[in-house]
């Protein structure tokens, strides 16, 4: 049986959180002399930012809850997904003792967050078709394994993970939190795992405003889980972790959900068109099936293609040295014009392979060690 309190670090259970001025008086009318704010206003030309924002972002959560089919109390909002990723590690893993389990190739932040917190990393690679090796995962779980990270659709491979595999892990790993990172779920033809929260107390779902919603610059990540776990994340987060402008703009975005859906439809259309065009290019060997807004593409000489593209100021992500991604570049789906430019440069490379005007210093980029594989 899953018991959250067994999973949390003991001192987190007894921790008294910081109680902010906005926690202690929640009314909106009155003379506010409780938070040492500037009473006159801000030095900005537009807008007033002199008052602290709602520490619990209720307006956003009230709007988001019906869209996501959860209760507002089941939502945590973070400074990007990066914040809940880090808070989940800090809430559960004792440094130098506990572990997290990841399935490479996958998003780099899980590993970085474990490293920052001195938490052991258990790696169970995905199968060559980028699916979960369920038996190997179950065999690798130890009593110290507090978090199991799944990314679906997965970055950098782009595919959804099989639902059966996730169900099995959720059922068996009852002494761990099982986190499904759905940063790309809007691009997939599949329901969110949020619909399973009622069935699995150990399930955590991450989503973000950075991709489909087009708000990467705002830094706003969503975490959905049991009310009990969300309560713990609220206890350990920085009190005012989401700024007032971010809250206001996120509310505005949520009122225009249909525009998000239109952009998603356009990206899916472009993804299909780009995949078809790339198939016809001789340098392209494999286009991995994508349920996301990018394509993982294997080239005969990925490093040469990457550098040629850079020299023409078309920037893609070199994943050619990543496990199971030999020779692959990760290409975000752009606008029709951007994709056309990419294809034009690839065709040009085929016709005249020497990169003209290679800017100084770009040649080594692909081989530099990288800590994070972001975005
Ligand atoms: C892009 C991405 C995110 C989003 O991160 P933010 O911090 O919310 O911008 C999360 N997970 C994965 C797998 C991603 O690719």
Summarize the topology.
Blueprint: H1 4-7, H2 10-14, H3 21-24, H4 58-68, E1 75-78, H5 82-92, E2 99-102, H6 109-116, E3 120-123, H7 134-140, E4 145-151, H8 163-172, E5 177-181, E6 203-208, E7 221-224, H9 227-236, H10 244-254, H11 257-279, E8 284-287, E9 294-299, H12 302-311, E10 317-318, E11 328-332, H13 336-351
Parallel strand pairs: 2-3, 2-4, 4-5, 5-6
Antiparallel strand pairs: 1-7, 6-7, 8-9, 9-11, 10-11
The structure holds pyridoxal-5'-phosphate.
Task: Kindly provide the radius of gyration, computed on alpha-carbon positions and rounded to a whole number of angstroms.
Answer: 22 Å
Bound molecules: pyridoxal-5'-phosphate
**Spatial ordering of strands, largest sheet:** 1-7-6-5-4-2-3
Query: What is the strand tally?
Result: 11
Q: Quick one: biggest sheet?
A: 7 strands, mixed
What is the element string, with H for helices and E for strands? Answer: HHHHEHEHEHEHEEEHHHEEHEEH
How much of the sequence lies in strands comes to 5-15%
- Span of the ends, CA to CA: 36 Å
Secondary structure class reads: alpha/beta
Instruction: Name the overall outline.
Output: globular
Q: Which spans have pLDDT < 50 for at least 5 consecutive residues?
A: 362-370
Helix content bin: 25-40%
The averaged pLDDT comes out at 94
Number of helices: 13
């Amino acid at each position: 049986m899953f018991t959250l309190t067994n999973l949390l670090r003991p001192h987190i259970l007894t921790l008294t959180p910081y109680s902010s001025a906005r926690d202690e008086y929640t009314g909106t009318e009155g003379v506010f002399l409780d938070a040492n704010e500037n009473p006159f206003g801000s030095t900005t030309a537009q807008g007033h930012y002199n008052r602290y924002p709602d520490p619990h972002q209720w307006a956003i959560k009230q709007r988001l809850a019906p869209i996501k089919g959860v209760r507002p109390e089941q939502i945590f909002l973070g400074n990007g997904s990066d914040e809940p990723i880090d808070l989940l590690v800090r809430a559960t893993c004792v440094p130098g003792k506990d572990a997290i389990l990841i399935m490479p190739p996958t998003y780099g932040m899980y590993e970085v967050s474990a490293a920052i917190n001195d938490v052991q990393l258990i790696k169970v690679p995905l199968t060559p078709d980028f699916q979960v090796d369920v038996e190997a995962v179950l065999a690798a779980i130890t009593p110290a394994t507090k978090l199991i990270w799944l990314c679906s659709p997965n970055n950098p491979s782009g595919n959804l993970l099989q639902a059966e595999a996730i169900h099995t892990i959720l059922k068996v790993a009852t002494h761990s939190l099982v986190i499904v990172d759905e940063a790309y779920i809007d691009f997939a033809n599949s329901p969110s795992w949020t619909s399973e929260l009622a069935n699995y107390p150990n399930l955590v779902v991450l989503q973000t405003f950075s991709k489909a919603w087009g708000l990467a610059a705002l830094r706003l990540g969503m975490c959905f889980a049991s009310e009990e776990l969300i309560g713990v994340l609220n206890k350990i987060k920085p009190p005012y972790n989401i700024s007032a402008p971010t809250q206001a703009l996120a509310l505005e975005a949520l009122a225009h959900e249909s525009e998000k859906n239109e952009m998603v439809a356009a990206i899916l259309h472009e993804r299909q068109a780009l995949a078809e065009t790339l198939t016809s290019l001789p340098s392209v060997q494999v286009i991995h099936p994508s349920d996301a807004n990018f394509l993982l593409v294997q080239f005969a000489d990925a490093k040469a293609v990457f550098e040629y593209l850079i020299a023409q100021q078309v920037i893609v992500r070199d994943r050619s040295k990543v496990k199971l991604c030999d020779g692959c570049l990760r290409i975000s789906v752009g606008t029709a014009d951007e994709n056309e430019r990419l294809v034009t440069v690839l065709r040009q490379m085929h016709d005249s392979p020497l990169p003209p005007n290679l800017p100084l210093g770009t040649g080594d980029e692909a081989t530099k060690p990288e800590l994070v594989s972001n975005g």
